[in-house]
Amino acid sequence: MPIRVILADDHPLVTEGVKAVLETFDQIDLIASVTNGRDAVTAIERLDPDITLMDLNMPGMNGLTATELVLERDPAARIIILSMHDNPEYIATALRHGAKGYLLKDVPTEEIVEAIENVHAGETYLCTGIDGAMQPTLDCDREPLTSREQIVLLRLARGLSNKEVGRELEISVRTVETHRKNIKRKLAIETTAGLTRYVLESGLLGLTD
Q1: Mapped to the 3 state alphabet, what secondary structure does the chain carry?
Q2: What percentage of the chain reaches a pLDDT higher than 70?
Q3: In the record, which positions carry 4-aspartylphosphate (predicted)?
């Protein structure tokens, strides 16, 4: 039986390129293509693919949040993150959220297929050139941020006050303060300036939610 794959990416050139690649391999069946995280969650729940290729940056809901939601409902789901970012912290964050693989969008055609086959076989796949650089980051035992904490962190890094964050997310200021406290504890960062610097240096500021 072919490996059933869903592609979630909002960039037309990437989508068409990946589609063209996968359609040339008989052992892979691309069963759906969506352009945002919310539709990805729905499609995965409805179609139960063997593998999902998930873009990190998508409108409406980013790939990390979508991955987390999918795995809450089906811990056996296998998701490979697609990204333009090779920052180790970015990659480690994706893996801590449950992704089984991480591919840069400019990898050779054969590597996309190799990643799909390896993850389908139960392995974790990191694309060529980033696996060695990842080891120190993966060895870190820091508690990961939840998707909600990441959303709050991104807004704090953009300079929003607790009140403004609460208004945007429709939560109380006290809830924002709790998230902020937990974020600082998990990252071992005490100041707002430090949180902003962390977001900038890790590349997370580019994520949409």
Answers
A1: CCEEEEEECCCHHHHHHHHHHHCCCCCEEEEEEECCHHHHHHHHHHHCCCEEEEECCCCCCCHHHHHHHHHHHCCCCCEEEEECCCCHHHHHHHHHCCCCEEEECCCCHHHHHHHHHHHHCCCCEECCCCHHHHHHHHCCCCCCCCHHHHHHHHHHHCCCCHHHHHHHHCCCHHHHHHHHHHHHHHHCCCCHHHHHHHHHHHCHHHCCC
A2: 89
A3: 55
Q: Residue ranges per domain, the chain?
A: 3-138, 147-206
Within 8 A by CB and 6+ apart from 196, the residues are: 156, 157, 159
Superfamily (CATH H level) for 3-138: Response regulator (3.40.50.2300)
- 86: number of Cβ within 10 Å: 16
Q: So what CATH class is 147-206? A: mainly alpha
Residue 112's beta-bridge partner residues?
Answer: none
Summarize the confidence of residues 19-34 as an average pLDDT.
93
- The two structure tokens encoding residue 193: 């300036």
| 153-188 confidence digits (pLDDT tens) | 888 888 889 999 999 888 999 999 999 999 888 888
